[in-house]
Protein: MerR family transcriptional regulator
Organism: Mesorhizobium retamae
Amino acid sequence: MTRSHLLAGRFGAATRLSPKALRLYAEQGLLVPAHTDPQTGYRYYAAEQTPRARLIARLRQLGLPVLRIAALLELSPQARTIELRTWLEAQNQRLADHAELVEAMARQDEAALPALTIALRDVAATKIVSRRRLVTVVDLDAYMAEAEADIRAHLAASGLAHDGLMSVHHHDFTTRDNEGPVEVAIACEGPVEPIGDLLIRLLPGRREAFVPVPAGHENFPLVLSIYEALEAWIDRQGLIAIDSPYEIYPGSAAADFDIAYPVNS
């Protein structure tokens, strides 16, 4: 140890890192003291560690997690700049998406929804050919079109009618920046084998609460208001949604699609 070494307190003051932060970064391996006195436990940092410490402090100001900072520290300045600019673009897009959703929610609060026709119906057990994939809202339409075409082509190649209804099952929440598992399915009758990522399964008979989606509310984020209206109706009726929601194409009453929840009978 030389005179250029600083006690943790002085080093922290020079780099604007608190004692708590220095201990955390030492434990995480981001900024390990150059020397620890075995008798006193005092931690000393070398002057050469100052630029790294200040860089860590600046990255923490961005709200980056420790693991992301650790990866950035290992990059060259040029590569780190590219990574940070890419991260910033993603943050800006995420904020824009959030702003869009907030504005859509505000419009829903400020204006009444169009008249909705919500009802119950019983649906017989149905065999489906389906494909499930993680997608965002941005990729949803393209994925639905591709999956529908592939499934109908497989049914036709199997010698079966391929004009059954399409259903799109949302097994988790899907947004512009969050991938959710979405299953596209076509109803069918007759023997058919799975192929590739196309699966065969049976949807049990069920009662469903459904609503035709009115024109102008088919797309994200306005379609969320229709989901919420249906969910509120289910609650008011004293019913319980027993599985994830799905969309049915084409919908009833000349709608592009219906939104439905299976409910307890």
